[in-house]
Amino acid sequence: MTSGKDQGAWGPELADFAGRWGVARRIEDRLARAEGRFDGEAVFAPDGRGGLIYRETGELRLGDGPAFSAERSYLWRGAGGQIVVDFADGRPFHSFDPAAPAAHHLCVADDYDVRYDFAAWPDWQAEWTVRGPRKDYTMLSLYRRA
Question: Of 11, 56, 77, 126, whose CB has the highest number of CB atoms within 10 Å?
């Protein structure tokens, strides 16, 4: 764990994420007036270049619809005290300071804001708020070491 940047603030280092995590996600889609749920696993595995490959797999249920398999991947790496998160194809996504863990991503007309919470480490969470002309939802993902 890193220590004491902003008057005692701390956050995990990139290597602290390595391994398997259970993921429970709640989705509140305000436009569709529906809720969703994702239950699965996230694995942070070494990428061979000092970073981690994040791969998430599980079951997603949106509203009253049937459950289906879902997955996604990202690349996480450290850079200058920040954790940099890129899409699986290497395009930039966002970066954050583990001691002040919030970030913003603009995707065309949609605003993506994330706030990571490491206060209960090793359990942690990520809360995304997404707004745009065709999007208005919040996702809260809870991670527990598997």
Answer: 11
Nearest of 108, 60, 112 to residue 85 by alpha carbon? 112
> Which tokens is 86 given?
């890129």
Tens-place pLDDT, residues 100-130 = 999 999 988 899 999 999 999 999 999 999 9
- The structural domains of the chain, with segments of one domain joined by +, span 18-145
Model confidence, pTM: 0.90
| Alpha carbon 23 to its chain's center | 10
DSSP string, 63-116: TTSPPEEEEEEEEEEEETTEEEEEETTS-EEEEEBTTB-EEEEEETTEEEEEEE
**Structure token digits, residue 16:** 């602290």
CATH T-level topology, domain 18-145: Lipocalin (2.40.128)
Residue 144 has pLDDT above 70, yes or no: yes
Closest by alpha carbon to 23, among 145, 121, 138? 145
Query: What is the band of 10 on the pLDDT scale with cuts at 50, 70, 90?
Result: confident
Supply 52's token pair: 């981690």
